Amino acid sequence: MEDEVIEVSPCSFLHDYTPFNPSDEDVQACFDELLKAGLVTQLEDGRYDVSEVNQSLSGSTSEFPSYTSLSTICETIAKAQLKDRSASCSSEQNLLDPVTPGLSDSSDLSDSLDSINGYFKLLESTAVASTDLTTADCAVDCEWRLDSCANNIVENHQSVAEHAARVMNEDPRRLFTYSCPQMTFEDTRMTLWYWSRSHCANPVPFDFTQDIFTTVRVLASFIFARTDELGFDASVQRRLDYTDKKRKSCFVFRVQDRCFKILRSISEHLNPRRVAGRSTRVFEVLEVGSFDDLTPVPGATNQILKDVWLDAEARTEKQIQDDKFQDLDEFAKKIINSKEGTSEIREFTGASPGDQEMLRTALCKQENYKRYFLTIDCDQQGFQSKPVSPDATVTDNIFTRLPLATVPASLPYANSSRSHLTSATSSQHPEVKVARQPCDYVPKRQYRVVFNEVCEALQNVRELKTVIRGMQDCLTAVQLMFLAGWVHRYISGGNLLWFSETETEGRGMLSDLEYAKKFDANGQGRADPKTGTPLFMPIEIQRQIYIYRRNDVLDSSNNILDYDHPLDLTDDKPLHMIHNFEHDLESFFWLLLWTITVRTGDINTQNLVSSIFLQSSQCSPDREKAITDSRGLISGLNTNISQELKELVEPVARLRRALMWGYVNRKQAFSDLATYSPLYGHVRKALGQCLRIAEGPGVPSLPVSFPCEEAKEVHPLPPQICKRVRSTTKTGAGSTSRKSQRISKDGKSTRGRKGA
């Protein structure tokens, strides 16, 4: 999580991150209320003192009584009359009950609530099923400690970060959230945190008893903020469903001018240890009349709603799909206008007559090829995260280091010798710092899309023959994308779907086009980042090294050992790794192998491939050999696979051999479409042979399913920085240009504030 945190000054935090920046007049109005109540007094030297806070801190040994005075200060500030604003929050000292369950499983973070001993509560409660306080009404959580020892400060950071992740992950209404932790006895420091799907901002701590006006400004920015300024999304509402016999609470999402009630959560790709990222949620929904009318609209059927955070300038799934369909229409015209049929079309090189006819039939009408892809009903782009503050810097080891800085004690009752934050062992064991690399923090934009088809991921389908049928249809979808010049870049067991049209009929459908892009063999001078789920990721993408190596011809006739033999150094630049069409096909190989080994539940085959299917972005030696030299894998399959599935080993081996042939014989001719087109037919034949076997007697079901596709972090760098970058132009092949802000260890943000 540390890689998503930047540090800013308190002034910049107020300007760029607080819910709103109260004017000087607003602050003075709040300050006058404190003076009137006697909570702030003026000393002889003209300075102001919060004596009640100082006395309560010095006279107590526990957090709750010590900070009662802070609640009193907040209550007093709330009485101030601000122009066009009224108090929306109150300061509470209370442990929080869990948020409404059922949307995510974050029980591993339940302990994080134990240390949250205060929070700013919404005055207008959003809880609908109970009058109990819940995290649904927690606008800002607070962590108060009397002990300022270094290890406790680190523990405090970790606790606050985990709680922020829990709040953001469990409540789909949260666009961003705040924490106001680490008020300590010895140095009365206040530390603020802003958490978003793009990054986290953490200002330099300040003494809240000395810098009183800053303290009042911060507290007022929370107390008088609107709910949307506190990070609550008005387009998602919690409601009590009176149409349900049990009257359960539910969430209702608005997309454009339509409302969709959540029926169940299908998958949630939420990291319990991170806030920043895509944070994809997928729900089964039903369209209803409005937030307050949960009756289904006439003719409503169950649909799928996907809620995700995209890079701010990334193209949406609908934009990508529209562009792809347009390119397919253009390719269809190319076939119609071809005088010599398909013989002169390189995309059909090596394709069998049957495959060519199948593709021509699919292209002759839009409804024919669209059936292989999800139907988008509606979509909407929403809130964009705050940009990085211009003076932001990165700070190492926020969650691990032992702070060595000395902060002078500010209370008259404090012993200044105890304000040092060094540990007893710090001099014996010097701190080891690992410098963070410069980072690009990309703003995120919320995106929602509603699909008509409610499907099941192939990784959950129980019948092997149905999985293979789904793969066959999805292969056709991927080949259609090839004809249009697009690569998918994210083939996995969760993105290949099965749509049951009737009890006995269905078809495979390809989903998750967010990473799809026009293929560009040159990559516009930059490599593609790693994309996909590690289990199904091509080994070239994982290793960032091509299987075919560009080397001199090393046969004996070239006299390489003659030292004076001519040596060409002009063409020695490294090749950028570009995701090509064969990489999509290799993912089919991994999905097939994974299905017949891991999903069968057979311990022997699972052990055989345990070093091949790892949830890691790195490619293991055994995984590499499974493609480049499969003798060990094929021999192991023949020995360990069940008798009912033994015939599947041959098509798997043939498919592997075809993929290796493609990589080696293509060499570096990545733009030669004729080197890819024969492979689709080969994969189709292998799947056809597998289907004939799977339809035979005695083939067992697949007991192992994966309802939540996990471990999507596929890049060693932070996901908000360069993980799975999508194309950001409509037709610019391979373009990954985007606006971002680079933050270096010692430098500032490279983008200035507008109007500054």
Automatic annotation (TrEMBL):
Matches recorded under InterPro entries: Kinase-like_dom_sf (IPR011009), Pkinase_fungal (IPR040976)
Residues of the Fungal-type protein kinase domain: 136-595
Leader sequence residues: none
Biased composition (Polar residues): 728-738
Region (Disordered): 724-756
Database matches in Pfam families: Pkinase_fungal
Identification of the protein by name: Fungal-type protein kinase domain-containing protein
